[in-house]
Write a structure and sequence with these properties.
By secondary structure, the chain is mainly alpha-helical. The chain has one domain (13-80). 56% of the residues lie in helices and 0% in strands. The chain is built from 4 helices and no strands. The protein has helices spanning 13-20, 29-44, 50-57, 65-80.
């Protein structure tokens, strides 16, 4: 029997955080999950910046840190419907 995975509501911080990192090319899914969790902490106000979230999560990525920050920032801004930095 396969366990059922429930998705977060579309307007939740968790959904926004994990959607924001979905496009970041990483080595393993766990790298993306760890990064998503730390972006969630950033959105909650527990971390000061996306840079800090990346530093703490230490995801193994197939892109530069600056590219990942751009991707995440762009995704968060698009989810908000604005063009300013979060």
């Amino acid at each position: 029997m396969t366990p059922v995975v429930q998705k977060w509501p579309d307007d939740s911080l968790e959904r926004r955080a994990y959607d924001a990192v979905a496009g970041v090319p990483v080595v393993e899914d766990n790298d993306r999950n760890r990064l998503g969790y730390h972006i969630y902490l950033y959105l909650k106000g527990e971390l000061a910046s996306i840079e800090e979230a990346l530093h703490i999560a230490q995801p193994r990525m197939h892109c530069s840190k600056d590219d990942a920050i751009r991707m995440i920032t762009s995704s968060i801004s698009a989810a908000r419907g604005d063009t300013q930095t979060p």
